Amino acid sequence: MGTRVFGTVASGFEPVADAFGASFDGLPDMGAGLSVRVEGETVVDLWGGVADARDGRAWQADTPTLVFSCTKGLVAIVAAQLVAEGRLDYDAPVARYWPDFAANGKAGATIADALSHRAGLSAPRRDLGLEDVLDWDRMVAVLAEQEPLWVPGTGHAYHAITHGWLNGEVIRRVTGKSVGANLAERIAAPLAVDMTVGRPEALRVPPAHVVADPALSQFWRDEAAKPEPNWLLRSMTLGHALPADLVTPDGGFNDPRLQAAEIPGAGGIASARALATIWSATVTETNGVRLLDGQAIRRATTAKSFGPQVFPVPEPYCSWGLGLQLDSPARRYLTARSFGHDGAGGQVQFADPEHRIGFGFVTNWMMGPDDTRATRIIDALRTLVH
After folding, report:
1. In this predicted model, what pLDDT tens digit does every residue of 39-54 receive, in sequence order?
2. Can you state the angle between helices 272-283 and 70-84, rounded to 10 degrees?
3. What residues act catalytically?
4. Helix (H, G, I), strand (E, B), or coil: what is residue 248?
5. d(CA 290, CA 280)
6. CA torsion sign, 185 to 354 to 347 to 312?
7. What is the pLDDT of residues 62-77, one digit of tens each?
8. Phi then psi dihedrals of residue 45, to 5 deg
9. How far apart are the first and last CA of the chain?
10. Pairing of β 211-212 and β 365-366
11. Comparing C-alpha atoms, which of 330, 349, 289 is closest to residue 339?
12. Is 247 in a helix, a strand, or coil?
């Protein structure tokens, strides 16, 4: 018997519900949530499965889970707001706001470089441990001191974890508040949603327990067998700080210490409802809030990084604007104008300005590069709005 799905679907959106239900096939321990808003109104609100297979806790309507790199997209919203307020300049050197960052050949690296994975700091040169990543000041000092892996601005490679400290420290310097506090005050509180970075006690429901599918773990074992230096692997592990697939049964981002730390490259926790609401609010008034205007969206979605990376990764390639992930062969959103950010293991969030849609899909069953769960749901949605 298949996993039972709960929730509501507006008339005409049943194919989206069918695609969501099919995502559980063959995965009896998976939990997931899906939320879609059109013009600010919820048209799909679904959930099902298991939030924690260890004790059988069921996934609820507002269950939050680790959303990993979706967190980068949320940070990009804050950066775009600061640009719109005239407090941050995409074209300015990072060192204008963070003087220590100019060390060892990084004086010319811009805010745009930092947001679009062009800063040359996709991984640390030295091995770091768990205690390092729990210490914000330690991590930003490491990045400020490091000689870049390539000349900033001349190419890109995905800053899987370091992206959050780079851009979060800029936000802290500009506002005087941590990136987690900015996200809480600028986004979560006005919209009344369950989303946090570094404040799990603020969530109304405990986060789900995350499990890495065996195929994902095998992918990273294969990667670990490649010759050193393997900068792709190091971008995930930071040396010895994190497991490559980001979770173990009790470690990685299942560790309460990591969930309580501000790690805005990967440590966000949110429900599907929260993500759909947030991204809806970037393109249309939602819950009485509009997060970005049209000019801010146009600037933040200017394509900066696409095609082959400095350290080779297989095709298809992603595309990024100023911290926002754009529609690309690697991550098809609803239309060419959609923007958002996906996250490790299957998390997907985006906004579409053409149809004024906000979308959030989250799951605690992390799958590898061949995962098509969210893609099939988005494909179903696309047939309904075109």
Report:
1. 999 999 999 999 999 9
2. 30
3. 69
4. coil
5. 9
6. negative
7. 999 999 999 999 999 9
8. -145, 95
9. 34
10. parallel
11. 349
12. strand
